[in-house]
Amino acid sequence: MRRVIGLMSGTSLDGVDAALLETDGVRVGGFGRALTIPYPPRLRADLRDLLDRAADLLPDDPGLLQLERALTLVHAEAVRALGEPAELIGFHGQTILHRPEEGRTWQIGDAVLLSRETGLPVAFDFRSADVAAGGQGAPLVPVFHAALAAALPRPLAVLNLGGVGNLTFIGGDGTLLACDTGPGNALLDDWALRHTGVPCDRDGALALAGHVDERILATLMAHPFFRRPAPKSLDRQAFHDALDRIAVLSPENGAATLAAFTAAAVAATSLPAVPTRWLVCGGGRRNPAIMRALESRLGAPVESVESVGWDGDALEAQCFAFLAERVRLGLPLSFPGTTGVTGSRTGGRMVG
Ligand SMILES: Nc1ncnc2c1ncn2[C@@H]1O[C@H](COP(=O)(O)OP(=O)(O)OP(=O)(O)O)[C@@H](O)[C@H]1O
Ligand SMILES: CC(=O)N[C@H]1[C@@H]2OC[C@@H](O2)[C@@H](O)[C@@H]1O[C@H](C)C(=O)O
């Protein structure tokens, strides 16, 4: 087993998650420490700004290069703060654009600089080979969920609620089916920021004080994304016009409607069998309004992944440690059932 550090900066733009994983790229041998380094507010604001401009940006744009350097140095700081001896780093980078239908997915971050700063080899650019081969380039976490869940009863669903939601279904025979489900917390974060000045509806306080506007929810659910079968993936900004549609609502009712939107989107995903259990990871598991809405719309037990001994905050960082070792070994990262690619695909690049 190798000691690998995974680094993930997700769509919620809150910071960098770092975690140590012991793995041979097939099995998980053990977990080490995990932590999050929040982005400095200025960097977060600059990244947020970049999302709206990413489609027209050139890779050598001076402002972009400056941000990429600052972002990479936060990742190097996360590696140092983790303080775990390691042999390899998996560096996801910050997604600023995801349009697989145009053959584009873009994660920024300077792997050469990170390798130099840490003195370790770095695996990076996990998604573009899949997109180049006609896949969605996301989600990539299913193969890691399957390795973690090897001993759990099936069929099983693992749901990650970050900025965007994504789901892994593991069938009775181990078949994997995955997709992004719709919004996770990103819309709620933006709504909360607009109304409270804080970019998060902490503990679902706003949403729990409001009522769902089912009529507006139905219009949100009319989005063509929900009629597409899995596998399918999303750009963080895909549902951004939802904020205009709910603009007529009070802060509380808007938040309640967005929490219900996240849950209804999950419930709208058609799966080959009914999961015996739903395990939820990512920051959304801390929002009771979302968890209650999930339970009522799914009609099934919904638990945090902690109930099976996983760390719901560290899972994605651990995933990119696992995938880094798979990159190093030339093992596949994606499969027809997870990204829609034809045949299983290797991916990622290495430096250092
Ligand atoms: N106590 C809490 N109450 C409500 N929401 C919370 C709480 N803690 C975290 N969150 C939500 O979780 C989000 C962060 O989740 P997470 O770190 O899983 O996202 P991410 O990894 O950046 O995104 P993605 O998985 O889409 O890449 C925050 O944006 C916030 O909205
Ligand atoms: C393009 C991109 O960065 N997608 C992320 C994002 O965050 C959640 C969801 O959207 C998922 O598709 C993916 O991350 C996870 C880790 C994945 O690839 O499995």
What does this structure look like?
- With 352 residues, the protein is α/β, with parallel strands linked by helices.
- The chain folds into 2 domains: 2-138 and 312-335 and 345-351, Nucleotidyltransferase, domain 5 (2-Layer Sandwich); 142-308, ATPase, nucleotide binding domain (Nucleotidyltransferase, domain 5), CATH 3.30.420.40.
- It has 13 helices and 12 strands.
- The chain has helices at 41-53, 62-82, 111-118, 128-132, 142-148, 186-196, 205-208, 214-220, 242-245, 251-267, 288-298, 315-329, 336-339, and strands spanning 2-9, 15-23, 28-38, 88-99, 104-108, 122-124, 156-161, 164-170, 176-183, 277-281, 302-304, 349-351.
- Strands 1, 2, 3, 4, 5, 6 and 12 form a 7-stranded mixed beta sheet that branches. It has a 5-stranded mixed beta sheet with strand order 9-8-7-10-11, with helices on both faces.
- β7 (156-161) and β8 (164-170) form a beta hairpin.
- The protein is globular.
- The model has no long low-confidence stretch (mean pLDDT 96).
- Ligand AH0 is lined by residues 10-11, 95, 98, 105, 138-141, 162-164, 166, 180, 233, 316, 319.
Q: How would you summarize this macromolecular structure in one to three sentences?
A:
With 352 residues, this protein is an alpha/beta fold. Helix content is 36%, strand content 23%. Helix 11 links the parallel strand 10 (277-281) and strand 11.
Outline the secondary-structure elements:
Blueprint: E1 2-9, E2 15-23, E3 28-38, H1 41-53, H2 62-82, E4 88-99, E5 104-108, H3 111-118, E6 122-124, H4 128-132, H5 142-148, E7 156-161, E8 164-170, E9 176-183, H6 186-196, H7 205-208, H8 214-220, H9 242-245, H10 251-267, E10 277-281, H11 288-298, E11 302-304, H12 315-329, H13 336-339, E12 349-351
Parallel strand pairs: 1-4, 4-6, 7-10, 10-11
Antiparallel strand pairs: 1-2, 2-3, 4-5, 6-12, 7-8, 8-9
Helix pairs in contact: 1-2, 2-3, 6-10, 8-10, 10-11
The chain binds adenosine-5'-triphosphate and ligand AH0.
Adenosine-5'-triphosphate binds next to helix 6.
